[in-house]
Design a protein that fits this description.
alpha+beta, two-stranded antiparallel ribbon, 6-stranded mixed beta sheet, 184 residues
Length: 184
Amino acid sequence: MSVEAIMHTEFPEGYTVFFGADGKVIMTPQSLEYSGTIKSLQYDTIVSLGRHAKTVSDVYLDFPADENSAPDLAILREDSQRVGKRYSFEDVLLIAEVVSVSSARKDYDDCTAKYGRYNIPVYLVVDPYAAEVVVHTQPTGTGYIAAHTHQYGTGKLPIELADGRTFTLDLDELPRPEPETGVH
């Protein structure tokens, strides 16, 4: 898709649109649960690691073999340095992906394999629809050796980072889908 075409395209409301370096246009629907969960994760990074901790949300990270990713949240090493406009996957201590209705298979399966393959120390799958967080640790060439599931509403979950810091995820504060009503 050309820049000119993109400039004159009206994308559907409620979607996030990403433009890949390879010319692909990726559209993902945004829900209130998805957006609220990312906001909650970002808040927990500030509380746990400080206002100036190196974190990114929906920002491309460089991975080998053109497998770049823009995870929902990534916590980076404090000494990480951008190469050009991006950080490298080698700077990542934790990645969190928030499940949306359309991304469940990708987040649970594809990303688990990919992030394990690239030795991301901790990978979180945060699922507002199942009200659970799966913490993957001990990366391997095909995924992760350990995966522990934690239910929403079970308190604070301390997650040790490879640099010795602790990211604490507040499982009591993660948003859940609200029942839809017919009233506007």
